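All the exercises in this workshop are built on plain-text protein records. A learned vocabulary of local backbone shapes supplies the integers on the structure line. Once this layout is familiar, the rest of the handout is easier to follow. An example says more than a description, so a record of this kind follows:
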Amino acid sequence: MADSLYILFLNLGGGEVVLILFVILLLFGGKGIPSVAKALGKGIREFKDASDGIKRDIQESTGGITKQINEHVQEVKKEIDKD
């Protein structure tokens, strides 16, 4: 029963989420929350874009190595099939 109250993100319970929201409301006020949410969303988007760029760079830099390995694997398979 208690497990159903947990939020999957960060394993926070309902009471903890309410407490966090209350603190945010006290710190930023009702009018400041939308600007904080907008800045947070923008930050998350920039982080996601940067991580996608890093993934793409890694895939591009290892592309030649992967191709060479696949060619060697195919050669070995051909040699095994000959026997």
